[in-house]
């Protein structure tokens, strides 16, 4: 396999990757990936798609497509993303699915930010299977190099009618600085 990115021209860049794999017991599982991005100023956009053959050689038996973007206005950043996965051939037992995420980030100061998010994961075949998640997270980058996280959220699995609160407080230790 290999990959080839284009030069960045006024914020636009694209790339292609390919995978040539012929396993003795798994057949031809070749794949490709394409992407294009834009990142200039407050707007960042990305789109990508990748596919892979299954072990029987069915072309594009697994396909994943992603779109996303963000827009920054001062201390505020709005974020959106969509991920669509489909299966066929040897993978057809799995249901196609779509994930959608929305977020807002607010930078209080260079050391502290707050994030609010909402996401869904839906089974495209069985409409009753859908999970939603909401959350709020704060991060504090301390002067001693330690980062503190605190968050609260909720997961609702409609297919299984399960609601589960999420509460997290985490301390991430400082990382060692590399000497050059």
Report what the structure shows.
By secondary structure, the chain is an all-beta fold. Helices cover 0% and strands 66% of the residues. The chain has strands at 2-5, 12-19, 22-23, 27-28, 31-40, 43-52, 62-73, 76-87, 97-109, 112-123, 130-141, 147-157, 162-172. The strands form two sheets. It has an eleven-stranded antiparallel beta sheet, with no helix packed on it. Strands 3-4 form a two-stranded antiparallel ribbon. The radius of gyration is 20 Å and the shape is globular. The model has no long low-confidence stretch (mean pLDDT 85).
The structural class is mainly beta
- Specify the overall morphology: globular
Tally of DSSP helical segments: 0
Q: Span from first to last CA?
A: 33 Å
Largest sheet: 11 strands, antiparallel
- Rg estimate, integer Å: 20 Å
Strand order of the largest sheet: 1-2-5-6-7-8-9-10-11-12-13
Element-level helix/strand string:
EEEEEEEEEEEEE
The averaged pLDDT comes out at 85
Tally of extended strands?
13
Q: Please report which band the strand proportion falls in: under 5%, 5-15%, 15-25%, 25-35%, 35-45% or over 45%.
A: over 45%
Low-confidence segments, given as residue ranges, are none
Can you give the helix content as a percent range? under 10%
């Amino acid at each position: 396999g290999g990959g080839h990115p284009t030069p960045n021209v006024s914020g636009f860049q694209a790339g292609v990757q390919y995978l040539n794999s012929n396993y003795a017991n798994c057949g031809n599982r070749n794949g490709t990936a394409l992407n294009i991005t834009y990142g200039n100023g407050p707007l960042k956009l990305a789109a990508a798609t990748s596919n892979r053959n299954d072990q029987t050689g069915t072309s594009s038996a697994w396909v994943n497509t992603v779109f996303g973007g963000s827009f920054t206005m001062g201390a505020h950043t709005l974020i959106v993303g969509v991920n669509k996965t489909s299966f066929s051939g040897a993978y057809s037992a799995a249901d196609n699915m779509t994930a959608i995420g929305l977020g807002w980030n607010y930078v209080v100061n260079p050391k502290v930010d707050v994030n609010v998010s909402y996401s869904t994961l839906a089974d495209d075949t069985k409409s009753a299977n859908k999970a939603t998640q909401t959350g709020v997270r704060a991060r504090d980058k301390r002067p001693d190099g330690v980062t503190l996280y605190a968050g609260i959220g909720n997961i609702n699995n409609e297919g299984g009618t399960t609601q589960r609160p999420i509460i997290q407080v985490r301390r991430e230790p400082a990382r060692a600085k590399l000497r050059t």
